[in-house]
Design goal:
Largest sheet: 8 strands, antiparallel
CATH superfamily of the largest domain: Aminohydrolase, N-terminal nucleophile (Ntn) domain
C-alpha cells in the first residue's frame, strides 16, 4: 500500500526522495511528505494529494534542509487511521521535533500506547497510529537511536515497515520491518531504503531484503543489521533484475495499457525453458519436486486474494481435470482464520503478484505450521512469500505498475497450467496429451497477440456502454473465474458496479436486476458448457438486457441476435482463460478511458495490500 523511501549519501536528498515517491505512486496513496535532516535541524514538507503537489511545495520551501540535506525520509500514505490531510500525512515528528518517522502497516495496540504516553504528558496531534510510534521512540531514547527503536518495537503489536532519523544522531537512519516489506539498495557512497524496488533501481541493482524483526542501521560506514535484541544478522545481497525503462509508461497513455500490450512477451518469459515437449511435461525446478514427490500429493489448496485468487480458480480446474487431484481455492484471509484441515500430503499454493500480500503471507505461515508442502507463485524476486515458502515459481512478468493487474494474471494462469501439467504427468495424463498441452501453452503469446489486434474493435464496443451504471459477466467452467476477473477489472478502474456470476446462478436472483441499461458480458467461447451459457444469454436478451457476446473465431454465428460481439482465438477450454481475460481487460480499460477515470491509480485502491 503506502510507499517508503529513505536516503543517505552525498547527493541532495529531497530530489531523490520525491523521485522515489513518484516511482511508487502506483501503489496507491492519498497524501505524501518528506523530512530532511541538515546540520541539527529536521524540516518536514507534506501535503494531501499527489506527488506533483509535494514537489511544488518542496521547491517552494524556504528551507536549507530541502535544498542541501544529504539525508532524509519520505512517504506516500494510504489512509487507515484518520482522513487524508496534512496533519495525518507522514513523516511524523515527536513532540520535540527531534525525531522523524515514516511507517507502513498498522499498530494494533496504538490506543493503549497512546494512553500510556498521555500519562507522561506526551500528547499526539494527529489521528494516526504512526505518530504514537514516533512519540514512543522518542520516549525510549537514551543516547542510542537503534536501541530506542528496538525498545519501542518490542511494545508494538501489529505490522510495520519503518525508517527513523533524529537530529540527536545526524548521519544515521534506522529501519525495521515486521509484515511490511523493506528493501535496502546498496550504492556507491549512498544507501537507499524503500518499501518497493522501483524506488531503488535508478540508483543501484544491489539490494538487501529485510526479514521480519530485522533492524538495519545505515551510516556513512555502511549498513549493519540486527534483530530486535541487537544480535547481528546476515542477509544476502541480491541483484535486482528489473529494467528501469520497464517502470516507465513510454509511448502509452497509461501503465495499464502498456502492460496489457506487454502480455505476449511477459507470457513468453513465464514459459521460456519450462516446457519439455519430448516428455509432454513442465520443467519447474523451483518447485523442488521429484516425480515421486508430485505423485504423493493428495490435494491441492490454492490461497490468494482478488485477481490472484481468480487465477487460482483456473488452476483448480486444471489440477482436477488434468491430474485428477481434489483441489480447492480459498480466499487467503478466510483460510488463515477458519482453522483449515491440512495434511502433510497437501500442496498449498500461495499466489501473490507482489509476494507481500498480508493475508496470503499469513496463510503461508499457517499452512507451514500445519505441516503442508507450501509453494509460492510470485512476480517479485526476493519477496517475503518467495523467501518464506522456499520453493515455487516466479512469473518473470516484469514490473507491473498499474494497480489493476493484467499481465500478472495471465502469467499466473500460464504458470498454474504448467504446474498442473507437471503433476498430471506423474499420474493419469498420457504423454501424447501432455505433448499437445505443451504445444497449446507455447502458443499462449500468439493467442494474446491475436486478441490485442482486436483493440480497436473492442474500443468501439466499450464506447457504447461507458455510461452504464451496472454490468454482469457470466461464464462456466474455466471461464467462470474469467467472468469474475472481468467484472473485477471493470469495477476497479471505471467505478461501474459489475458482478461476475456462474452462468447457472443468473436465475437464482441476479436476473431480477436486468434491464435495458444493464449489459451482460456472456463468455460463449467454443468450449464445453457453451450451449448452456448461450441459453442463459438468451434469457438476458429476452429481458431486454444488452448482451456482449465473447465468441471463438470461426464460431461467430453463435452471437446472432446479440447486441455486440468480441472475437477471441479458438482454443481448448483450459487455454481459453488467457485470451478471454485479455479481451475483458481491454474492454474495461476503454470503458474507463471513455469515462475519464484515473486508470493507473483508481480511487481507494492500492497495488500491494500489506495490511489486513
Amino acid at each position: 500500500m503506502c510507499g517508503i523511501v529513505g536516503y543517505f549519501g552525498k547527493r541532495k536528498a529531497a530530489e531523490i526522495l520525491v523521485d522515489g515517491l513518484r516511482r511508487m505512486e502506483y501503489r496507491g496513496y492519498d497524501s505524501a511528505g518528506v523530512a530532511c535532516l541538515f546540520d541539527t535541524r529536521i524540516d518536514v514538507v507534506k501535503t494531501p494529494g499527489k506527488i506533483k503537489d509535494l514537489r511544488a511545495r518542496v521547491d517552494a520551501a524556504d528551507s536549507v534542509a530541502m535544498r542541501e540535506a544529504v539525508q532524509g525520509i519520505g512517504h506516500t500514505r494510504w489512509a487507515t487511521h484518520g482522513p487524508p490531510n496534512e496533519i495525518n500525512a507522514h513523516p511524523h515528528l515527536d513532540a520535540s521535533g527531534r525525531f522523524a518517522l515514516v511507517h507502513n502497516g498498522i499498530i494494533e495496540n496504538y490506543k493503549e500506547i497512546k494512553s500510556g504516553l498521555a500519562q507522561h504528558g506526551i500528547q499526539c496531534v494527529s489521528d494516526t497510529d504512526t505518530e504514537v510510534l514516533v512519540q514512543l521512540v522518542a520516549y525510549c531514547y537514551q543516547g542510542s537511536l537503534e536501541r530506542a527503536v528496538s525498545e519501542a518495537l518490542k511494545k508494538v503489536k501489529g505490522t510495520y515497515g519503518i525508517v527513523v532519523m533524529s537530529d540527536h544522531e545526524p548521519g544515521k537512519l534506522v529501519t525495521a520491518r515486521c509484515g511490511s516489506p523493506i528493501v535496502i539498495g546498496i550504492g556507491k557512497d549512498e544507501t537507499i531504503i524503500a518499501s518497493d524496488a522501483s524506488a531503488i533501481i535508478p540508483h543501484t541493482r544491489d539490494a538487501v531484503y529485510l526479514e521480519d524483526y530485522d533492524m538495519a542501521v545505515v551510516t556513512s560506514g555502511g549498513v549493519e543489521m540486527f534483530d530486535l535484541q541487537h544480535a547481528p544478522v546476515n542477509r544476502e545481497v541480491t541483484a535486482m533484475d528489473w529494467d528501469e525503462d520497464a517502470a516507465e509508461k513510454g509511448e502509452y497513455a497509461h501503465f495499464m495499457l502498456k502492460e496489457m500490450f506487454e502480455q505476449p512477451d511477459a507470457i513468453r518469459n513465464a514459459i521460456r525453458g519450462r516446457l519439455d515437449f519430448e516428455m509432454g511435461t513442465a520443467i519447474l525446478s523451483g518447485l523442488d519436486f521429484s516425480p515421486r514427490d508430485a505423485a504423493m500429493i493428495s490435494r491441492v489448496l490454492v490461497v490468494g486474494c482478488g485477481t490472484s485468487m481468480h487465477a487460482g480458480m483456473v488452476g483448480e480446474y486444471a489440477f482436477e481435470e488434468l491430474a485428477g487431484i481434489p483441489s480447492e481455492v480459498e480466499q487467503a484471509a478466510e483460510f488463515r482464520y477458519r482453522n483449515p484441515i491440512i495434511t502433510p500430503t497437501d500442496l498449498v499454493l500461495a499466489i501473490s503478484q507482489s509476494g507481500e500480500t498480508a493475508d496470503t503471507l499469513a496463510a503461508v505461515r499457517e499452512a507451514k505450521h500445519k505441516g503442508a508442502v507450501v509453494a509460492g507463485i510470485c512476480n517479485v524476486v526476493g519477496s517475503t512469500i518467495a523467501r518464506e515458502t522456499g520453493r515455487g515459481v516466479y512469473l518473470h512478468a516484469g514490473p507491473e505498475i498499474g494497480v489493476a493487474s493484467t499481465k500478472a494474471f495471465t502469467c499466473q494462469v500460464a504458470v498454474m497450467l504448467m504446474m498442473a501439467l507437471k503433476v498430471a504427468r506423474t499420474r493419469r495424463l498420457a504423454r501424447h496429451d501432455g505433448e499437445e498441452l505443451c504445444r497449446w501453452i507455447d502458443r499462449l503469446p500468439e493467442l494474446a497477440e491475436a486478441v490485442l489486434r482486436q483493440n480497436d474493435a473492442i474500443k468501439a464496443v466499450a464506447k457504447k456502454y461507458a455510461r452504464c451504471d451496472n454490468a454482469f459477466f457470466i461464464g462456466r467452467g474455466y471461464l467462470f473465474p474469467v467472468a469474475l476477473e472481468g467484472a473485477l477489472k471493470l469495477k476497479e478502474i471505471s467505478y461501474i458496479h459489475a458482478e461476475g456470476y456462474h452462468a447457472a446462478e443468473l436465475k437464482h436472483g441476479p436476473i431480477a436486476l436486468l434491464e435495458e441499461k444493464t449489459p451482460v458480458v456472456a463468455l460463449l467461447n467454443n468450449v464445453p458448457g457453451k450451449d448452456k451459457t448461450l441459453g442463459n444469454a438468451e434469457e438476458c436478451k429476452a429481458r431486454k438486457a444488452p448482451v456482449i457476446a465473447v465468441v471463438s473465431a470461426g464460431d461467430e454465428g453463435v452471437a446472432d441476435g446479440f447486441d455486440d460481439v468480441i472475437v477471441v482465438p479458438d482454443c481448448p477450454a483450459c487455454i481459453a482463460p488467457v485470451p478471454t481475460a485479455i479481451a475483458l481487460q481491454l474492454l474495461a480499460y476503454h470503458v474507463a478511458a471513455e469515462r475519464g477515470c484515473e486508470i493507473d491509480q483508481p480511487r481507494n485502491l492500492a497495488k500491494s495490500v500489506t495490511v489486513e
